[in-house]
Amino acid sequence: MIRSSIDSKAKSLHGDLSSDTFKKYATEAVDWIAHYLENMVDYPVLAQTKPGEIKSKLPNSPPAKPESLDQILSDFDKIIIPGITHWNHPRFFAYFSITGSYPGIIGELLSSALNVNAMLWKTSPSATELEEVVLDWLRQMLGLPEEFDGIINDTASVGSLCAMTAARESVNLQIREKGLTGRDDLPPLRMYTSTEAHSSIEKAAIVLGMGQEGICKIPTDEAFRMDAKALEREVKENIKKGIKPICVIATIGTTSTTSIDPVHEIAPICQKYGIWLHVDAAYGGSAAVVPEMRPLFNGWVQADSIIVNPHKWLFTPIDCSVLYCRRPEILKQAFSLTPEYLRTAAADEVKNYMEYGVALGRRFRALKLWMIIRSLGQEKIIHIIREHISYAKKLSEMIQEHPDFELLAPVPFSTLVVRFIPDKKLDESKINNLNEKLLDEVNKTGKVFLSHTKLRGKFGIRLAIGNIKTKWEDVALAWEIIRKQAMEMKNSI
Ligand SMILES: Cc1ncc(COP(=O)(O)O)c(C=O)c1O
Description:
The protein has helices spanning 2-14, 19-38, 69-80, 102-114, 125-142, 156-170, 175-178, 199-207, 228-240, 263-273, 310-313, 328-335, 366-401, 428-444, 472-492; strands at 149-153, 189-194, 215-218, 244-251, 276-280, 305-308, 321-325, 405-407, 415-420, 451-455, 458-464. It is α/β, with parallel strands linked by helices. It has a seven-stranded mixed β-sheet with strand order 1-7-6-5-4-2-3, with helices on both faces. Strands 8-9-11-10 form a four-stranded antiparallel β-sheet, covered by helices on one side. The N and C termini lie far apart (82 Å). Residues 96, 155-157, 198, 200, 251, 253-255, 280, 282-283, 309, 321 line the site of pyridoxal-5'-phosphate (PLP).
């Protein structure tokens, strides 16, 4: 009797939930997920909350005693859900539309249960070997040659940082060993990207000690593509001044317009001057699975490193970003640092992923990607991405036919930038204000969520298609809402 009361006390103080309790609530959570994903359209896409509203409903300090899962899940519904912007909604068209698909969610669930750390082969051989295999599958799907070796990072921001570190390592200036500060034996270093590159590239330069001035932003042409001639001019002039070019970062699918840098023109320049070529295809890369889209990727096989984010347009729950590297040994040279407590006997025969990036601890992200690729299959993946591209093409034709709207950029993938011009005589700042207001009104309907960008001073409304559940009807509804709100504004001008 005494023993059992000690046992139950010990359990309540130290134990996790019982497996029966887990089963009950996990089943409830899975039912909730299925219902949520099936009835997504009932939610306003963009959270309709005010700053601080969610915090005000939460206690300031943690509970001292256990709380029931009934209560916690009820608060999840009542407090947390109203403050959620529904990224998994088929009418989420902002930023880059993404998907946490069912097989991906199952992968995340199982990965949490295993809770392995994929830092060393030994710490879970399956996690390492599955990552190797699934990234080789993805490489084949993307049409990249065999020499590209992949690693999964959380984000493209981190993947690009790693690639740029490898680029810096490749020039043998002993920066890994001696650093950058207080050295008079180093030339000024330069990396090059376009004015349309993602901010993560500049951030990586900051982290790498190159500074914002260490990144040279090459101008773009009328279609927002890097001007390769201007790049070569800049590189030549810099070399003449004693500056050392170490990396060019080209983008296939820039963030604002999804423009495509002419990688086939940039690659020979990089080869000529011995510069590392990194291609950021975080969003656009997934479209390479579609055979007829491959010409847009002309030249990327010559890159030293490439980023593709399955968590953007490959139906993988965030986070999962793949960095492919043609010379993984340089990535390893840049990052490998193995203290005694992480040494393993089989180090020469296996891959220890911790040696190829910043993070030691690594989630088992390959599992969800494996489940997605297997359960959808290549043909279905190609079909869905092809559909998204066709919706964008159809919508861009409709926009071009409308007298009060214009496209601000070409539409190579599934993202459009559009603006409303009710009267050609209005000045630019008035048109910008109108479009900002229009976007606000459209988003306030809760039926769709779109974001914006500014292109050469022009405010544009951005609509990105990429969710697995998005159908043409969803895109058509977004266009109908935009037109309706715009016409109301036009009538009140
Ligand atoms: C072209 C491009 N590169 C990099 C990123 C950064 O991605 P992540 O959030 O994975 O760091 C983005 C994000 O939208 C992007 O559009």
